[in-house]
Amino acid sequence: MRQAGDEVPRAVILFGPPGSGKGTQAHLLKEALRAPHISTGDMLRERIASGDALGVQVRELMQAGRLVPDEVVNQLVEDRIGSGDCAGGFILDGYPRTIQQAVELDGKLKRRGFAPVVIHLKVDYNKIIARIAGRRQCPVCGTLYSLSSNPPRRPDLCDEDGAVLAVRDDDREAVIRERLEAYDRQTRPLLEYFAATGNPFHELDGSEGSPQEILSRIAGALRLG
Ligand code: AMP
After folding, report:
1. Which of 99, 121, 152, 158 is 20 to 30 A from 107 (CA-CA)?
2. What angle is formed at CA 91 by the lines to CA 88 and CA 96, rounded to 5 degrees?
3. pLDDT tens-digit profile of 124-142?
4. Is 40 in the pocket of ligand 1 (CB under 6 A)?
C-alpha cells in the first residue's frame, strides 16, 4: 500500500453512484495493494444477517433504497479502521456517502495519520441500470459478477466456492431508481466537498473497458508500479 516516497499510509476512497463498479474494483485493488477492502454495504448486510434490532431497521432502509443513519455507519467505520490490518492503509467502498460522513472521516484519518485519495468512477446512469440488473453476488464470500462483463465460469455458481449466486434485494429496478436518487441528493454533493478539501482527487471513466482495464486506470492514478 505504501510506495516509495510515501510518508503516510493511504486511505483510498472509491467514490461513485451505485453500480459504478466500486465493489468490483475494490475486490481487484485489494489484491493489487494487499490492503483490506472496507465496504459499509457488506458490513450492513452482515448486520442484517445477524437479525438483531439494528439489523431489522437497516434492512428496511436498505430495501427502500435509502441511506442508513450517519451515526450507524460512522461507528462501523471507526471500529473497522482501528484494527491492526488497516495500519498500512485500506480501501473504502461506499463510504463516505454524506457530507457529515465525509467530515467525520476526515477527522478520523487526520487523527490516525492516513492520507486520503479519492477515485471517482464516472458512469452514465443508463449503463448503471443495465449493469445492476445483470449483477449477481455470492452470498457466502461476497464476490461480485456481471452477467455481461464478468460472468461466473459455471452459470449461477460462484467461482470461488460453488455457492448459488444471488440477486441482492436492493438490485431490483424500482429500488435502483431510489438508490440513484439518494445518490443525487445526498452523495453527489460530496464532489464539491472533496474539491474544497484539496486532497488528491482522480476522476476516471468507469463505463468503458473491462474491469481489468478500469483497474489499470486506477493503478495509474495511484501511481502503482
Ligand atoms: P452498497 O453495497 O454500497 O451499494 O450499499 C447498499 C446499501 O447499504 C445502500 O443503499 C444503503 O442503504 C446502505 N449503505 C451502505 N453504505 C452506506 C453509507 N456509507 N451510508 C449510508 N448508508 C449506506
Report:
1. 121
2. 125
3. 888 888 888 899 999 999 8
4. yes
